[in-house]
Amino acid sequence: MDLTTRLGKLNANKQWWQPGERLLVAVSTGVDSMVLLDLLQRLPDGPKVVVVHVNHQLREQSQEEAEFLTQYCQERQLPLIIATWPIQDHPSTGVEEAARKFRYQFFKEQMRQQKINKVLTAHHQGDQVETILMHLTRGGQLTELTGMAARRSLGTGQLIRPLLDFSKIELKHYALQHDLKWFEDETNQQLEFTRNRYRHKVIPLLQTENLQAAEHIQNYAEQLTDSLAALSFLLHPLLNKAIRVQTDRFVELDLKLLRKTMPPETKIWVAEVLTTLLKLNDVNQNLVNELTVLVESASGKYVQLDLPNDWVAIRNYDRLVFNQKIEINGQENQQTQELVVNLNKWYLGTDHNHYGIFSDSSIVGATKLGTLSLRASDFPLTVRPVQSGDVIAVKGGHQKITRTLINQKVPKPKRQQIQVLVNQQQVILAVIGVQVAYQEHSDGDSYGLFDKKD
Predict the structure, then answer these.
(1) By residue range, what is the domain housing residue 67?
(2) Can you give the pTM of this predicted structure?
(3) 214: closest CA among 150, 166, 152?
């Protein structure tokens, strides 16, 4: 079966695009992307192609490639959009990753400007196998061993890789058969790049053991993709039952229910929580192990763990909370905006002082403002500016914060900057740097509210 027919059948099955649909097609002028561009033009009822190209200015022939592609598209009446990566923006290290970021940002911007929601790239079977082997060597989660998805989100649209089932040999044979012109990137031969070492050293060695090694690796990845999808399908309803509260930045789970309904191997559903509920991309096995230890701890006392993307995991008895911290930029925002605070960590307060809630009974160089008795239901804790009508518990009743500040002889200019610590129910637990609320009952775990000067 020729490549054009194969691509047409794949699209009929996968529904990547509809006949006549406008698509962005990323073309580097290498053999892979030139073949993809040619195949799309030969498809019966094919899409309407808009070519996008990035001149990275990393090689002498970059300008020649851009000029060739301009002429190619003019001859075939194909729209072409070229972006040039300024030389002054090239970093001294990490050029590959920086170039990739520029390229994909350009794709997203053109999807928006052209009102097109799909961009196609020419990643093929060889790229897929290299990716899988690199992930296998580096270590991580099983999901990474599925390789690159044929379809994934990109900005407000989708990135589609329709050639993942096509080998490099097939693509090159097609290019020669149809007299296609392409450019070779000499950097693809340089072994200082990790991917090139896998391409030119590791994979050829595997193929001396079995010529179909690449096909078999890809087949295993496809089986793993199907298995993980089935596992997620089975686990997700159980996770949903355990959710007490869920917002964009906050998830609370019933640990007792999870232990009853989930598989006894905690790591399985812990990984599902991180990837499905929190939608974290950079999940490794060390992180899964750390969260598993936190979840399985025999002690029910408050424990927390920092996660990627500013998420924090909080375990308190049978309550498992995930909270995403509000991004704070600079001292002014920390003093005027609402901020979720975590235990055993210092935060910038007013008048160049720092405050923190610590499990230790004393902190060297800091003043203990008072003791807080905290239960699971109090978390997460938040610091915010004083609001009109705020009151704090005192022995025998409640007192307006304004009166508290007067009694504590807080100067008038500083009263506008005062912050209060509140629990999840918005009950004021302390006036930061001034006073801790009176707590008649102390049936929670004890923590100290500390203050220190710079």
Answers:
(1) 3-209
(2) 0.66
(3) 166
Give the SS3 label for residue 226. helix
Where among 174, 209, 244 does a domain terminate?
209
In DSSP notation, 235-269 reads HHHHHHHHEEEE-SSEEEEEHHHHHHHS-S-HHHH
pLDDT along the chain (454 residues), means of 10: 93 95 96 97 95 89 92 96 91 85 94 95 94 87 86 92 94 96 79 81 91 91 91 89 85 87 87 88 85 81 81 84 62 55 85 83 88 86 88 91 88 82 91 90 85 78
**In CATH, what number is assigned to the domain containing residue 172?**
3.40.50.620
DSSP 397: E
Q: What angle do CA 369, 371, 374 make, to 5 degrees?
A: 135
What's the rounded Cα separation, in Å, for the pair 224 and 325? 34
Domain with 319 in it: what CATH number? 3.30.465.60
H/E segment holding residue 167: none
Torsion sign over Cα 187, 190, 193, 194: positive
| pLDDT at site 329 | 39
346 Cβ neighbours under 8 A, 6+ residues apart? 354, 355, 356, 452
What is the number of structural domains in the chain?
3
CB 74: neighbour CB atoms within 10 A?
10
Q: Does residue 231 fall inside a structural domain? A: no
User: Are 195 and 247 found together in one domain?
Assistant: no
Of 191, 209, 227, the last residue of a domain is 209
59 shares a domain with 23: yes
Report the b/e string of 83-111 with b at 16+ CB within 10 A.
Answer: bebeeeeeeeeeeeeebeebbbebbbebb
Q: CB within 8 A of 309, min separation 6: which ones?
A: 278, 280, 324
Residue 330: partners with Cβ closer than 8 Å, 6 or more residues away: none
302 and 351: one domain?
A: no
432 close to 420: Cβ distance less than 8 angstroms: yes
- Tokens matching residue 105: 């940002």
Where do the DSSP E strands lie in 90-199? 118-120, 151-154, 157-160
Domain check: are 297 and 379 in the same one?
A: no
- pLDDT confidence of residue 263: 84
Which tokens go with 440? 């008649």
CA dist., res. 122 & res. 107, Å (int): 14
- 38: closest CA among 106, 122, 111? 122
Q: Do 17 and 139 lie in a common domain?
A: yes
Pair 314, 378 in one domain = no
